[in-house]
Amino acid sequence: MPKKRKSRGRAKGSAGKKSIVQCSGCGKLVPRDKAKRVTKYKSLVDPMIGRELRQQGAYIPRTKETRLYCINCAVHRNVVRVRSKDDRKAS
Length: 91
Ligand SMILES: [Zn+2]
Fold this sequence. Notes:
The protein is of the alpha+beta class. The protein is 23% helix and 24% strand. Bound molecules: zinc ion.
């Protein structure tokens, strides 16, 4: 049977079942190795005030925010994109 993707869209390898996580966008339950991980650094301070404080030499801590998206949400948010027709045909 022809395969659409070499990895079948997952990073599972020969492992059996992987733990399930909830999508941050729609709440769908997806396997951890299939979900797309996005890490953002966010400042707790308002950017305008933060800039002024930084000019005066203040250190403003950032918080790390990790989100996991299902494929539908990842495509919708441009985390991953649909490959061009030639790319899709090649592999
Ligand atoms: Zn989702």
